[in-house]
Amino acid sequence: MQQRCFWVTDSKLYQDYHDNEWGEPVYDDKTLFEFLILETFQAGLSWITILNKRENFRKAFDDFDYKKIEKYSETKYQSLLQDSGIIRNKLKVRSAITNAQLFIEVQKEFGSFSNFIWSYVDDKPIVNTFHKREDVPATTPLSDKISKDLKKRGFKFVGSTVVYAFMQAVGMVNDHTTNCFKYPS
Questions:
Q1: Which residues span the domain enclosing 153?
Q2: Is 150 assigned a ligand-binding role in the annotation?
Q3: Binding residue per annotation — 167?
Q4: How many domains does the chain have?
Q5: Quick check: 22 and 169 in contact, CB under 8 A?
Q6: What is the spatial distance between Cα 172 and Cα 127, in angstroms, rounded to a whole number?
Q7: Which residues are catalytic?
Q8: Residue 18 counted as an annotated binding residue
Q9: In a domain, 20, yes or no
Q10: What 3-state class would DSSP assign to 185?
Q11: Predicted structure pTM score
């Protein structure tokens, strides 16, 4: 049996996410936006809750098409609040629309959101050497810095913990523990 990171349960969905997505570098703006939105909705909840609702989020949010989301009307906002397939938090739903608008502003300024976000790590993942749960931080000085920058730009639900989870998810940092089969050798 393959050894995985401490947080992976015996859920097939969780294992597939860990084995095939988590920590893999993502440079595509559409996927980066998806993870940004999912991480903001995850704030205060477990990641498995979000994974279980991921397909519902894709349907509700037009497959995370930020160009569509930025134009959502009040009617669409209200319909999202009635969608039991997603997290129906008023502030988080509103933030998805706001963050889509700001995501596009960042693209205009930097050519892509990927250029902006990956510049924080010189376009290559930081590979950490964590051995156990206690070693893995919830935030770092870098996630603090990115969070502060995103908040200054007006992004919502992008505290340092959310930003660090985003960095892990999109492979800006590789936090597979050293005993995990996905740890780079």
A1: 27-174
A2: no
A3: no
A4: 1
A5: yes
A6: 9
A7: 17, 39, 47
A8: yes
A9: no
A10: coil
A11: 0.95
Q: For residue 74, give both structure tokens.
A: 């009040």
Per-position pLDDT tens, the chain of length 185? 789 999 999 999 999 999 999 999 999 999 999 999 999 999 889 999 999 999 999 999 999 999 999 999 999 999 999 999 999 999 999 999 999 999 999 999 999 999 999 999 999 999 999 999 999 999 999 999 999 999 999 999 999 999 999 999 999 999 999 999 999 87
Residue 7 lies in a domain: no
Q: Is residue 14 part of a domain?
A: no
> Which tokens sit at 22?
């988590």
Per-residue tokens: 114: 């990927």
Q: Identity (one letter) of the amino acid at 135?
A: D
How far lies 104's CA from each of 29, 33, 64, 114, 159, in Å? 10, 10, 13, 11, 20
For the domain that residue 77 is a member of, what is the CATH number?
1.10.340.30
- 61 with 87: CB under 8 angstroms? no
Q: Is residue 3 part of a domain?
A: no
User: Is residue 5 annotated as involved in ligand binding?
Assistant: yes
Secondary structure in 3-state letters for 98-122: HHHHHHHHHHHHHCCHHHHHHHHHC
